[in-house]
Design goal:
mainly alpha, 21 helices, globular
Length: about 525
């Protein structure tokens, strides 16, 4: 139980920092989507560009973060050398990537259909490069259980990002439009940059985070090529795992614009390419705004993963490690199921996260994406089996199957159902991955999960959701709907505590700690 308490404590620390950090970033969405800031088409630009960021960071780190965790706990391997290998190799790959991006910025901008903004390519290449290199020293802080240092760096990064967003887009933009400029605004603000200020703020914030990691970036010792070959052999399947994961998470937003543009032009031959692209960009912006709501669960998953990954590797040596993994799964499922209910039952409140009502038509995808994140969380817990058993190629296989499902459903159904198809593709993909992972894991690294209890929790949550009060997204607040739906949430909590009395004991121990 002490191991579980440690995991819970570490998750709280990582959670306070990463959830606080991401929540503050999260609050930028209503800021961006408010009347007078960015229209859905402009917000679509932000949505698309950040989808590429997620993809590129996975590519540039190529699994070396997880490989570092594995080899820094392996007997006979020097921890510092494992760290050196990870940092050296990622830095080299990043250097080549940034150089190529700068040289070919204009052709890349043309391909993205932003021919007048090649600067976006350069800015994002540097952002991605800095974040990719920073991921290794941040992993070292997690490995050394320096959660507070990790937290401070991430909070500082987000504080700078939000501060600059408010400066450029609230202070400078509003003052300029009101005609109340001064020398500082004239020097730092150009209205033609528009959404580019979102990217500039991120670039500066990533630079600050990189500087704060200065002490961790100092290399002590040499590069061990023999060890690197071993580490890379372990890591490269994780690259495919990561790429497939990003495909499942972000490819829908990269495909929506092009597929909907073609669909609109096919349905109405009188539409020009520019008009069809603008309409598609608007749909992408609406989907992106509502996708952000589902990110609340994703924020928790990230905080949990920060704490769980080093915990699982360290726990491997303990006698009852598999029993611990099974208990963790029980607690985890309850938490994410409760989060699913809390958000999906209160969409009449959550809708104000995107203040402009033009985004509300997309609220229908939020419960689907939340349910998909519940499945993703279960898969995240399951995936420890192939990491501990050195069978990472199975993880790659599972993720690639998920990626094929995602691509296929999006290709076939986006032209017909738009972003609704993308949401269902995400849900189906993670459902298949959970099933595959469980079957393979029981064969190669069996963990006796309490399937009855897990199934009961998940089915209860989804069942209560099905009997919720379904209101019109555009109607005013309804107190009866609010009370009824939240009573169903209390029913879920009561049933969980009845079925698993150890849950209450765990909660009390965490609170006392």
């Amino acid at each position: 139980m002490s191991g579980l308490k440690k995991l819970a404590g570490q998750t709280v620390i990582y959670g306070v920092s990463s959830i606080l950090a991401r929540f503050l970033n999260f609050l930028l969405t209503p800021f961006y989507t408010a009347e007078g800031m960015f229209n859905p088409g402009e917000f679509g630009v932000i949505t698309e560009m950040y989808a590429y960021v997620a993809f590129l960071i996975v590519f540039l780190t190529f699994g070396m973060e997880t490989s570092f965790f594995r080899y820094s706990t392996k007997e006979g391997v020097d921890k510092q050398t494992a760290y050196n290998n990870s940092l050296y190799s990622v830095t080299l790959v990043v250097g080549v990537f940034v150089l190529l991006s700068v040289v070919f910025a204009q052709p890349i901008a043309n391909w993205l259909v932003y021919p007048e903004h090649s600067e976006y390519v350069i800015w994002f290449a540097i952002i991605v490069g800095l974040d990719a290199v920073a991921s290794i020293p941040l992993a070292k802080l997690r490995k050394e259980n320096k959660a507070k240092n990790f937290a401070l760096i991430n909070v500082a990064n987000v504080a700078v990002n939000i501060g600059l967003n408010l400066y450029f887009l609230w202070y400078c933009k509003s003052s300029f439009e009101a005609g109340n400029t001064n020398w500082l605004i004239d020097f730092t603000y150009n209205p033609s940059i528009g959404v580019g200020y979102v990217f500039i703020a991120n670039l500066i914030a990533s630079g600050v985070k990189f500087l704060l990691l200065g002490g961790q970036l100092k290399i002590r010792g040499t590069f061990d090529f023999q060890l690197f070959k071993e580490m890379f052999k372990y890591a490269y399947p994780m690259l495919f795992v990561g790429l497939a994961f990003i495909i499942n998470e972000t490819l829908d937003r990269l495909m929506l614009k092009s597929l909907l543009t073609e669909s609109y032009m096919d349905k109405d031959p009188t539409l020009s390419f520019e008009m069809a692209t603008e309409s598609a960009q608007t749909q992408l912006g609406i989907y992106g705004g509502n996708y952000k709501i589902a990110m609340i669960v994703s924020m928790f998953l990230q905080a949990y993963r920060y704490a769980a990954e080093p915990f699982f590797f360290n726990q491997e040596k303990e006698k009852d490690s598999k029993k611990t993994y099974a208990k963790v799964m029980n607690y985890f499922v309850v938490i994410v199921a409760l989060m699913f209910l809390a958000i999906s039952m209160n969409l009449q409140i959550v809708k104000y996260f995107t203040p402009s009502s033009v985004y509300w038509e997309g609220l229908v995808v939020v419960p689907i994406l939340l349910a998909a994140n519940v499945l993703l969380g279960i898969y995240t817990n399951q995936s420890i089996w192939y990491k501990l058993s050195h069978k990472t190629y199975y993880g790659a296989l599972i993720s690639l199957v998920g990626a094929v499902i995602t691509v296929t459903i999006n290709l076939l159904l986006i032209p017909i159902y738009g972003y609704l198809a993308s949401a269902w593709a995400t849900f189906i993909c993670y459902g298949v991955m959970v099933t595959m992972s469980y079957i393979m894991g029981q064969k190669h690294y069996p963990i006796q999960y309490n399937l009855r209890k897990i199934a009961a929790f998940v089915l209860l949550a989804f069942g209560l959701f099905m009997i919720r009060w379904r209101g019109d997204f555009y109607s005013d607040f309804n107190w009866i709907q609010f009370i009824y739906n939240n009573t169903l949430i209390l029913v879920f909590v009561g049933v969980v505590l009845f079925l698993d009395k150890s849950m209450m004991g765990m909660i009390r121990r965490i609170i006392k700690r």
